[in-house]
Amino acid sequence: MARITSVGKYGRKAGFREGDELVSLGGVPVGDVLDCLYFDGEERFDAEIVRGGKRRTLHVRKHADESLEIELDAEMRPMRCLNKCVFCFVDQLPKGMRDTLYVKDDDYRFSFVSGSYVTLTNLSDEETERIIRLRLSPLYISVHAYSDDVRKRLVANPATVKLIERMRRLGEHGIKMHTQLVIVPGINDGEELTRSIRGLHGIPGVLTVAVVPVGLTAHREGLADIRTATAEESAATVAQVEALNSEFGGFCWCSDEYYVKAGLPPREYAYYGEFEQIENGVGLFAEFYDNVDFELSTLPDMHLGKKVGFITGVDFAPFLRKKLEEVDAKIGISSTVFGVVNNFFGQTITVAGLVTAGDITAQVDASGLDAAVIPDNMLKEFGDVFLDNVTAAEVERALGVPLIVVSHSGSDLVGRIAEFFRGEDI
After folding, report:
1. Across-strand partners of 125?
2. pTM of whole model > 0.70?
């Protein structure tokens, strides 16, 4: 039972009021807001509420596209992770970061709502049936290996032996799934990787597989002795996954990081289909290039005459530098790219999204610049705080130049810079 804190127009028309205690919908006890979201799409059902200490039944009749817009006071507290993954990134975090980053969650509800990856090792049979009943689809599943023994070695939780069977049940009942394999050399690469991709292709409902290299920081005291892939191993993995992707017609992809590690150019835009694994770093470079090209094609030539620094990670720096030659020519700026070495996590971490404020202020010389540009994925979502708990405003003061935050997808990079210097919307 949860108290209703807000009701929309159609919810009020159906008889719901703020302050009501919501007991059940369609005869099913209300657990959280996901139950309300599911019944938003239903046209006829009964709802049990308690108002003024008395239980009442509401006979709801509405169109499927009429949202009740019910909000509850019941907070969705994340289910805790029960695994001890050999590559767990939280276990490798240094001190001094935002408190929320140290929380280990593994919650199917947040997988549905926000696309976070889960292992399903803490999922009960009742929760499996709830996923099916509420049609929570798609889900994002961390599989890592199709073989039970290999997967158990990686996640260190015997409950993972139920994963493939559970995924089959979900798929057979219409639940779609995106999956990821975090690759640890010598454990789940090579033949095991092929076995995993082929196995996942045979599970109904599995739409995609992202193949991602393991990320290891410099803070691994007392943790498993594992390593990252060499350039040769990375190239072999790329070739292996590309061959399977060709065989299955667009099903599995390596993240961009694999191409960088292998010394290979990123693939073209069309290779990534619907970009369904973009949040896993699959196709980020291609998306960025395409978005910048589109912006360049729609904006007039300008001569801003400004010097701009672009701050990114080591991986993307040479690719960004190449594309900025076109940007410089189009809008008349002089660009300098700063590929920031990650001393906070360790120099094996090379992606832009894990660059911290401390490393930026220690390495970026902004003297002579008119502004500096950072991608939004360096900051907390819907916020302005870096991973090391320093605000964008503090970095701006330390650098001594304005900081321009742009989408990491490149969709507004050129326009935001032009708008900033011209003082008008472009």
Report:
1. none
2. yes
